[in-house]
Design a protein that fits this description.
This protein has 458 residues and is α/β, with parallel strands linked by helices. The protein contains 14 helices and 14 strands. The chain has two domains: 171 residues, Anaerobic Ribonucleotide-triphosphate Reductase Large Chain, CATH 3.20.70; 226 residues, Anaerobic Ribonucleotide-triphosphate Reductase Large Chain (Alpha-Beta Barrel). 44% of the residues lie in helices and 18% in strands. Strands 1, 2, 3, 4, 5, 6, 7, 8, 9, 10, 11 and 14 form a twelve-stranded mixed β-sheet that branches. The protein has a two-stranded antiparallel ribbon with strand order 12-13. α6 crosses α13 and α7 packs parallel to α9. 57% of the residues are buried.
Length: 458
């Protein structure tokens, strides 16, 4: 990476102090597949030791580099290789014990979250993957820091409909087991199409095949920075869409440069490889740090009104282009997130009825990720939830992009009520679901929806 200019340094300082710029996460990827053992206790012991040995310096290193540069690092996390691959000789009891061991390791070294309680079942599933999936409700309700993800679809394989329906059951059970916290367990579970192997953001982070033994991936988020840049520009001059896109690209460039600087410093200090910078506009519940507010700056006064999808498309594309120009190591998801509970403006739009589930689904076709941190009524039936997930997976498969569902059925609450998750997970009004109970026959065909034509590109 080239040397920062004086102008870049001064502008970065301004972004930190006035516009909520931060490094959202430093995520250390660790391969634990060498810990596989037929003896459950020995396997857990090896996993625990490897996590602690590899990550024991992560917090001190991040804190020191944060102080040195004056750049906040909000979260320090770990992403493990898919734990389903350790469970082929084991059952659900071992899966739960392994998750608790990992939770204990994270607590010992003060890591925020651990991803990698994951399975990739887009074309079918093995006994180990089934054991992991079946254990998810117990795992997410009895651990504090473990996050789970399951990939049920890909452009090359199609959609595993049986896995989708099973995940709908798992989501509902997980929410019910954490009913006292508005079903919060489901907020730590993501269902994916085309899951990225180097994503540093939770709850979907894991270390994929082909990744190094140990690697640092960085997630940088700057919705407040982009909002402020557009606010200033549009206040002083009239811009067309090309000029708006250029301003977003320039701002994304600067944010990505900050991420790469921090990532390389952390990796060097830990003695591991540097992986990627994920420049994703991941909002927080705080005012001024919102993707929804960017849409309002662009003239979409009621988020969800006609034009909202085009605005997200413009934003997502410009962010990716700016990031790619700033670094040869951009990866993960990189784009605009629209997690409802984590974005104050989006949550309010849902509460007013401006932003409905169908419009959110349309917007996910041009954004990063998908139906993210959306609360729905707790009495949703399995087939309707499965059909909702199927729709989102189809968007990812047909368009050859990552899409995901982090949907939370809130036990005992209905559309219009509020779900409160706390911290960076925020709160949101519960979205109504269109005509529940009318998709059962479709979902019950089961099997696999074939891969689309565009998968044949060799």
């Amino acid at each position: 990476m080239g040397v920062f200019t004086t102008e870049e340094i001064l502008r970065t300082v301004e972004m930190i102090h006035k516009e909520n710029l931060d490094v959202r996460t430093v995520t250390l990827g660790i391969n634990v597949l060498d810990a596989a053992r037929a003896d459950s206790n020995k396997m857990q012991e090896r996993v625990f030791k490897k996590i602690v040995n590899k990550a024991k310096s992560l917090i001190p290193v991040c804190n020191e580099i944060s102080r040195r540069y004056g750049i906040p690092i909000v979260n320090k996390r770990i992403a493990l290789s898919p734990l389903s691959q350790l469970l082929e000789q084991h059952n659900e009891t071992t899966a739960l014990a392994l998750a608790k061991t990992i939770d204990r390791a994270a607590r010992e070294i003060n890591i925020d979250f651990v991803g990698g309680f994951s399975a990739l079942v887009e074309k079918g599933w093995t006994p180990g993957e089934q054991s992991l999936i079946n254990s998810i409700p117990l795992v997410l309700s009895s651990t504090e820091r473990v996050c789970a993800s399951v990939n049920v679809a890909s452009t090359s394989a199609g959609i595993n409909v049986d896995a989708v329906r099973r995940m709908a059951e798992i989501i509902i059970k997980t929410a019910q087991r954490t009913a006292e916290h508005d079903g919060f367990g489901a907020a730590k579970l993501v269902v994916f199409a085309n899951i990225p192997q180097d994503n540093p953001f939770m709850a979907g982070a894991y270390l994929g095949s082909g990744e190094p033994e140990c690697v640092v991936n960085i997630g940088v988020s700057g919705p407040g920075v982009i909002k402020r840049a557009l606010e200033v520009k549009l206040r002083h001059q009239k811009l067309d869409f090309i000029e708006i896109a250029e301003e977003i690209k320039r701002t994304a460039f600067r944010v990505t440069r900050v991420g790469e600087l921090i990532g390389r410093e952390v990796a060097e200090a830990l003695g591991v490889e540097f992986g990627i910078v994920d420049l994703s506009l991941a909002p927080t519940p705080y005012v001024g740090d919102s993707v929804g507010e960017i849409l309002q700056i662009l003239g979409i006064k009621s988020i969800g009104a006609p034009g909202s999808t085009a605005a997200i498309a413009l934003l997502n594309d410009a962010v990716k282009k700016g990031g790619l120009f700033a670094s040869s190591s951009v990866g993960g998801l990189s784009g605009a997130f629209i997690p409802v509970s984590e974005d104050a403006a989006l949550s309010l739009a849902v509460g007013r009825g401006d932003l409905q589930l169908e419009k959110l689904e349309a917007m996910t076709s041009v954004s990063s990720v998908g139906l993210d941190m959306i609360a729905i009524p707790g009495d949703i039936d399995v087939d309707t939830l499965a059909a909702l997930i199927l729709d989102e997976m189809s968007i990812g498969v047909v368009n050859d992009k990552t899409t995901a569902c982090r949907i939370i059925p809130v036990p005992g609450k209905k559309a219009g009520d509020k779900a409160v998750f706390g911290g960076l997970f925020g709160e949101c009004f519960i979205s109504p679901v269109h005509r529940p109970g009318n998709s059962g026959q479709f979902v019950k065909y089961g099997g696999r929806i074939p891969a689309p034509l565009r998968s044949l590109h060799n």
